[in-house]
Specification:
Layout: E1 3-9, H1 16-22, H2 24-28, E2 32-37, H3 44-48, E3 54-57, H4 62-71, E4 77-80, E5 85-87, H5 89-98, E6 105-113, H6 119-133, E7 143-145, H7 146-152, H8 162-171, E8 177-186, H9 188-193, H10 195-210, H11 215-222
Parallel strand pairs: 1-2, 1-4, 2-3, 6-8
Antiparallel strand pairs: 4-7, 5-8, 6-7
């Protein structure tokens, strides 16, 4: 069965080439790569065009962009990757093996790249938390079969916490696969704002979301 990789992007010209080159073996094996641009003002779409099967446009917002990519996809299994995330060869092999499963969802372990010695610690904490909670983050490369994705209605069209929201919907249907193969993601947002400041911000936003805060107001706080 065909795998569709969906990549939401916004002004990612500096990082998206590495991801698209890493996905080239999947394209060569007959799977598809779709980039969904949310209104980039840099060369994101021009760079992505020759390295992806399709470059779509959608209103800004990861949930909306990923839903648009899924709507235009032809595969039976969707894999949602951030533009600054790169799968290892082991992760690619795992996805190719799972493309034959019609009813599945899950995520990979993540390794956060950067200069701070705390980033590997944060990554281990993320992986343990999601393994126990059944909630995946977008940095962990969420994958889901078309059947399950359509059953839950896709990503809720909210401005933030779309990964938490769809995880909660999917885990009601079945437990996620928490794969130990690793994908690498950039630590730029942690290092730009300060590692522990960013961790505390995300904890605060996640708590507020669970207590019923409006995702749009949380997105403004995040930005």
């Amino acid at each position: 069965m065909r795998l569709s990789v969906v990549i939401p992007a916004l002004n990612e010209a500096a990082v998206i080439p590495e991801l698209l080159h890493a996905l080239a073996p999947l394209r060569q094996a007959g799977h598809e790569v779709i980039v969904v641009d949310g209104g980039s003002r840099d060369a994101t779409t021009a760079i992505a065009a020759p390295l992806a099967d399709r470059v779509l446009t959608a209103p800004r917002g990861r949930a909306v962009q990923m839903n648009a990519g899924a709507a235009g996809a032809t595969g039976a299994l969707f894999w949602f990757l951030h533009a600054d995330t790169v799968p290892t060869r082991e992760a690619l092999a795992a996805m190719r093996a799972m493309a034959a499963d019609e009813r599945i969802w899950g995520r990979f372990d993540v390794f956060i790249e950067g200069e701070s010695r705390w980033l590997p610690v944060i990554a281990r904490g993320m992986n343990l938390r999601s393994r126990f909670s059944g909630v995946a983050t977008g940095d962990q490369g969420i994958f889901v079969s078309r059947e399950l994705f359509e059953t839950v209605g896709g990503f809720p069209p909210i401005a933030l916490m779309e990964d938490v929201a769809i995880s909660r919907l999917l885990r009601r249907r079945q437990a996620p696969l928490c794969l130990r193969q690793t994908i690498r993601t950039s630590g730029r947002r942690w290092e730009c704002r300060g590692v522990w400041r960013t961790v505390l911000l995300m904890w605060r936003l996640r708590l507020a979301y669970f207590l019923g805060a409006d995702p749009e107001s949380l997105a403004r706080s995040y930005r």
